[in-house]
Amino acid sequence: MTEKILFVDDDELILAAWERSLGRQFRLDTASGPSQALEKIEARGPYAVVVSDMRMPEMDGLELLRRIRVSNPDTVRLILTGNADMRTAIDAVNDGAIFRFLEKPCPNEVLSKVLAAALDQHRLIHSEKDLLEKTLHGSVKVLTEVLSLVNPEAFSTAARIALYVKNVSTQLGLKDAWRFEMAAMLSHLGCVVLSTETLESVRLGRRLSKEEEARYASHPSVARDLLRNIPRLESIAAMVARQQEAYKDQHHQPLAERGTELLGAQILKVCIRFESLVRSGIGHVGAIESLRKSPAEYDPAIVAVLVQLPIESLPCEPHYIAVEHLLCRMVLDEDLRTKDGILLVAKGIEITETLLTRIENFYGRNYAGPLIRVLVPISLRKWLKSSQAAIPELLNRG
CB–CB of 158/147 below 8 Å? Predict the structure, then answer.
C-alpha cells in the first residue's frame, strides 16, 4: 500500500479522529489548513488523494483543490463540508473537477468506501496514462525508425532539434514536455516523400526550383496527415503542421496564454531554424543573433531561452577515425562515400544503430578506406583513448 492520502482541515481534533479511525486501513497524512497542505504536497507529494474541508479561514477547500489540480492533475480530489448546498456542490464538481462531495458528519464506513474508490480511480488514471504513453512512444519509435531507414539525414536533423526542444521546454517549465520532444522527433517525418537531391540542396543552402520549394514547404502537412491517423497524437500533428508559421501571425500572445499546439509550433520553428544555422557553421552565438534579427518571424521569448541552453553539456571534438570504428552519437563532419565515390551518408548526419547497419551493409567493415572526420561527443573521449582508433588532433592532409 504505497498511495498516500492527505486530509486537510483547520480543526486538528477532526484530523486526529480521521487518523485514529482510518490510519490502519490507509496511508494517511494530515494538514491543519491550506498553507500546510500546499507545503506538504510540494515537499512530500504528490498524493494519490486529497480530502479537504470546505470552510477554512485562509482559503476555502474548493480554491485549494483548484490549485492542487493545476500542480498535480492526477491527484483525486474530495470535499467534506458541514454546510452543503446545491450551488456549492455544483461549483465543486464543475470548477474543481471533484471526485466526490461528502457531507459532515460522514460515517467511517462511508468514507472508507469512498477513499477506496478514489484510490482505484487514481490507479486507473495512472494505468491509462502509462498505457497511452507506451502506445504513443511505441508508435513514434516505429515512425522514427522508418524515417532513419528511408531518410537518415532527416532523422538525424530531427534528433538534434529534439535536444534543443527538450532544453527549451525544461527552461520554460512546460508540463507534458514529452509532447514537445515527440513533435520535434516527428517534425521531419514528411520528408520521406522528398528526394535525396532536394534534401541535400536544402542542407547545403542551394537554390531550389519552384517545384522543389513547393514540395519542401508541404512536408509539415504530409507529416500531419500521417500522424493524425494515430489516436491521441492530434495535438502533436498540429504542432508539426504549423511549424512554418511566422510569429507575427500569432498576435504576440504571451507564452502562458498560448495553447499547447501554438506554443509547440513556435518552439519547433525556432529550434528548427536554430539547428539549421548551427549546422551551417556560424556557431550557437551567431545562430541566436541571427534569430534575434527576425523578431516577426521567430518568437523573441523562445529565442531568449536558447541563450540559457547548456551548450557545454553537448560539446563535440573533431577527430579522424577509421570508418569501422564509427559509433552511435558521432556526427559525420564530411561526406562518407563508397570506394566507388558514391555518396552513402552526407556530412552532418548523426550516427545511429540503424545507420551503422546500413554502413556495414553498403560500405563493408573489411574495406580499409581512409580516415573520416567526425565530431565526437566529449562523453566518448574515454573510448577514443582506450581504442587508439582516433587521431586526437585533426590531421594536416597536405
Answer: yes
What is the DSSP secondary-structure string of 179-223? HHHHHHHTTTGGGGGS-HHHHHHHHHTPPPPHHHHHHHHTHHHHH
Quick one: cell of 336? 562518407
- Report, in angstroms and rounded to the nearest whole number, the Rg of the chain calculated over CA atoms: 27
Question: Residue 159 domain-assigned?
Answer: yes
Predicted confidence (pLDDT) at residue 1 exceeds the cutoff of 50: no
What percentage of residues in the chain have a pLDDT greater than 70? 80
Percent of the chain at pLDDT > 90 equals 23
Q: What is the pTM of this model?
A: 0.56
Give the structural domain span for 243: 151-313
Q: For residue 306, what is its C-alpha cell? A: 536558447
User: DSSP character for 93?
Assistant: H
Distance CA 100, CA 89 (A): 9
**CA 110/CA 89 separation, integer angstroms:** 18
How does the average pLDDT of the chain come out, rounded? 80
- Which of 313, 342, 375 is at the close of a domain? 313
346, 200 contact by CB (below 8 A):
yes
Query: Which phi and psi (to 5°) does residue 46 adopt?
Result: -80, 160
Contact indicator for 276, 298 with CB cutoff of 8 Å: no
Q: What is the pLDDT of residue 388?
A: 47
Query: What does DSSP assign to residue 107?
Result: -
- Mapped onto helix, strand or coil, the DSSP state of residue 256 is helix
285-326 confidence digits (pLDDT tens):
788 899 999 988 999 989 998 877 764 445 566 788 888 788
Mean pLDDT for 192-214 is 82
Residues 335 and 307 in one domain: no
Residues 177-195 have a mean pLDDT of 86
CB atoms within 10 A of CB 342: 8
Q: Is the domain of 386 the same as that of 274?
A: no
- DSSP assignment string, 265-287: HHHHHHHHHHHHHIIIIIHHHHH
The DSSP-derived string for 312-343 is GGS-EEEEEE-GGG--TT-EESS-EE-TT--E
Beta-bridge mates of residue 152: none
Where is pLDDT greater, at 175 or 95?
175
Q: Which of 254, 279, 313 is the last residue of a domain?
A: 313
- 105 & 46 share domain: yes
